Amino acid sequence: MNAIEFLDVLTSRKSIRRYKPDPVPDEMIDRILEAARWAPTGENYQPWRFIVVRDQETRNKIGDLSRQGSGSRMTSWYCLNELQQRFEGIEDPVKRAEVLEFMYSGRVSEFCKQAPVVVAIIGDLRVGSVDVPYDLCAAMENMILQAHAEGLGSCWVYGPVASTRDAIRFKKILGIPLGMGYYKVLSYLAVGFPKEQRKHPRPKLALEEMVYWEKFGNKERI
Ligand SMILES: Cc1cc2nc3c(=O)[nH]c(=O)nc-3n(C[C@H](O)[C@H](O)[C@H](O)COP(=O)(O)O)c2cc1C
Q1: Cβ–Cβ under 8 Å, residues 76 and 163
Q2: Domain count of the chain?
Q3: I need a labelling partner for 141 at 20 to 30 A (CA). Which of 99, 132, 154, 185 fits?
Q4: What is the pLDDT of residues 144-177, one digit of tens each?
C-alpha cells in the first residue's frame, strides 16, 4: 500500500454506532490488540491493559451505565438550550423532538449492547508515567484503524466514564481494582461489523483552519 492509499484508508473511517449481530472472529480481535501493542508510549512503559468483553450481560451493564452517564450530561445541555441549538437544523418538529429525546434520555450511548465486542482500555498508573493518558489514546487510535482495516466498525466511547462516579461503577462492572493511583479508565471501544453505510465520514475542518506555519496565527506557507 502506498502513502496515498494509506491516507484513503484513514479518510474513509468513521465512527460506527450500529452493528450487525455477527460475531467478530478471534483473529480479528487479536490483530486489533496487536495493533494496540505497537502504539508509541512514553519511555516505552506500555502501561495499557485491555479487557475484551463479549458477554452480553456485561455489555448490557456497560450500556446501562453509558445511558445514565450520557443522559445526565445531555440533560444538562438540554437545560442550557445547547442541545436544541445543535439540532435546530432538523425542520420536522416531531423528528426533532425524537432526536432530542434520544439524546437527553442517554439512549444515544447504549449502543454497546448491540456491539458484539467491547474493549475497555485502562492504564496501570503504577507502571506508567505522566504519559499514561497519551499512551492509552495512541493505543486506542491504533485499534480503531486496525478495526477499520479489518472491515469492522468501531466507536471510541468516553462520555459514560467521564465522571469519577461512573468510572468507579465501570471498574466494579469489570472487576478492575479500585483506588486512586491504581488504574485509569480511559474509555472503551465498541467493535463489530457495521450495519450502517461506512462511506460518509463526518465533515471535517479544512487544513487552512487549523494549520499555522512557523508562528501561531500565520496561515501563509513560508
Ligand atoms: C476522546 C473521544 C471520546 C469520544 N466519546 C464518545 C462517546 O462517549 N460517545 C460516542 O458516541 N462517541 C464518542 N466519540 C466518537 C466521536 O463522537 C467521533 O469521533 C466524532 O463525532 C467524529 O466522527 P468520526 O469518528 O466519524 O470522524 C469519541 C471520540 C473521541 C476521540
Answers
A1: no
A2: 1
A3: 99
A4: 999 999 999 999 998 778 888 999 999 999 999 9
Ligand 1 touching residue 157 (CB < 6 A): yes
Q: Is 102 in the pocket of ligand 1 (CB under 6 A)?
A: no
Residue of minimum CA distance from atom 1 in ligand 1: 158
CA distance 85 to 77: 10
Task: Quote the pTM value.
Answer: 0.94
CA of 159 to the centre of ligand 1 (A): 9
Residue 44 has pLDDT above 80, yes or no: yes
- Distance (angstroms) between ligand 1 centre and the Cα of 14 equals 9
CATH number of the structural domain spanning residue 22: 3.40.109.10
- With respect to residue 140, please indicate whether it lies within any of the assigned structural domains: yes
Specify the pLDDT at position 206. Answer: 94
